[in-house]
Amino acid sequence: MKKIIISAIIFTISFSCSKKSSNENLNQQKDSLKISDSINIAKRNDSIRMLNSKNRFRDFSGNHRFTYETQAFNPISGTVTFDKIEGERDNYNLSGSIKSGENSVNIKGFVQVVSPKHMNFTGEIIQKISVNDNGKPYIRKGTKTFMSKNGGKTYRLQDMVNGSGFVDYIDIHF
């Protein structure tokens, strides 16, 4: 009789142990599936992020010629730099300057390319031109549009009338 009871206890213990190990195996499989799924989701998110950071339009990164022209004197030129913002589509930080004697134009801000012919600039353009109010600084702030009419070789600021009421041409050449 003792042997039967001992056998039953050993059988019960071994049976209950085997159930736990199968439950543990199922839990481990579920955990590994969750890890696998999260890795796949992370890969998918990375590929989506890469696609969303690719430019829709051409890459404008680098240094380019920056010119100022008015009827009072010949054009003056300098450089402007487009720095692509990492992880963003068609967005750049922009800075540049033109200096010639007492005359200067400085530009600093953010550019978003919105079409092959249009760029929206948000920032500040400060110009000091000797023939305009004796060189008093004229500041353009806010969002302004640069537009191209020659296939993207030159983009011209569309806010052309300065503080003195005269037309200025501020261009970026590519």
Sum this structure up briefly.
The chain has one helix spanning 2-53, and strands at residues 62-70, 73-84, 91-100, 103-115, 118-128, 138-147, 154-157, 168-173.
Structural notes for this entry:
This protein has 174 residues and is of the alpha+beta class. It contains one helix and eight strands. The chain has an eight-stranded antiparallel barrel. The longest helix is centred in the N-terminal third of the chain and has 52 residues. The chain is rod-shaped and about 115 Å long.
Give the helices and strands, then pairings.
Elements: H1 2-53, E1 62-70, E2 73-84, E3 91-100, E4 103-115, E5 118-128, E6 138-147, E7 154-157, E8 168-173
Antiparallel strand pairs: 1-2, 1-8, 2-3, 3-4, 4-5, 5-6, 6-7, 7-8
Strand elements, count:
8
- Mean pLDDT level: 84
Q: How would you spell out the order of helices and strands?
A: HEEEEEEEE
Rg (CA only): 33 Å
Distance between the termini: 99 Å
- As residue ranges, the low-confidence spans are none
Helical content stands at 25-40%
Shape: rod-shaped
Largest sheet: 8 strands, antiparallel, barrel
Count, helices: 1
Q: Could you say which structural class the secondary elements and strand pairing correspond to? A: alpha+beta
Strand content: 35-45%
Strand arrangement across the biggest beta sheet: 1-2-3-4-5-6-7-8
